[in-house]
């Protein structure tokens, strides 16, 4: 299922053990290398004041109730998993990032994104256009396949998509004018008399 990333902000986290809400999500922890949501930072009355993360690997299900986990013991500190701590320390946030094309033209800033809930990969970026370009269209959707580069300040996308050239195909049974063919007809061979 594809869902807007903003729908998962401040989403409830429900524990099977307590049969109730134990936390709320704050922000997505996204790996900039492949735009995969690895975890969410969470807060709640039952949680310590130090930063706590809910890894996507520990989520049992994402339903209309929110994220469902086994228990509150599933939450971890950022330094509990070394690979996750490196991503957490980057403080990478898609929202507000500039999007430019290969020619360095500004396309706008990211205001939202869509996530595939099966893989938690970011599929599309919703880009708010600059004021002078927003007269024609206010938002632009950028698919992940269009992304060329992600750096600290901006995301670079392809300048334009190539439209395939139309191909002409002969229809079976259609009339072909022999005088319009690219190859002229061959001269008959003269037989010896």
Please describe the topology of this protein:
Layout: E1 2-4, E2 12-15, E3 20-31, E4 36-43, E5 52-55, E6 61-63, E7 66-69, H1 82-90, E8 98-101, E9 106-116, E10 121-128, E11 139-143, E12 147-150, E13 154-157
Parallel strand pairs: 2-7, 8-13
Antiparallel strand pairs: 1-9, 2-3, 3-4, 4-5, 6-7, 8-9, 9-10, 10-11, 12-13
Helix content: under 10%
* Count of runs of 4 or more consecutive helical residues: 1
Quickly give the CATH architecture of the largest domain: Roll
How many domains would you count in the coordinates? Answer: 2
Instruction: Kindly estimate the percentage of residues that lie in beta strands according to DSSP.
Output: 35-45%
Number of strands: 13
User: What's the story with the biggest beta sheet?
Assistant: 7 strands, mixed
CATH class of the largest domain: Mainly Beta
Radius of gyration, in Å, reads: 27 Å
Residue stretches low in confidence (pLDDT < 50, at least 5 long) are none
SSE order, one letter for each helix or strand: EEEEEEEHEEEEEE
What would you call the structural class? Answer: mainly beta
- Shape designation: elongated
CATH topology of the largest domain: SH3 type barrels
Mean pLDDT: 85
Termini separation: 81 Å
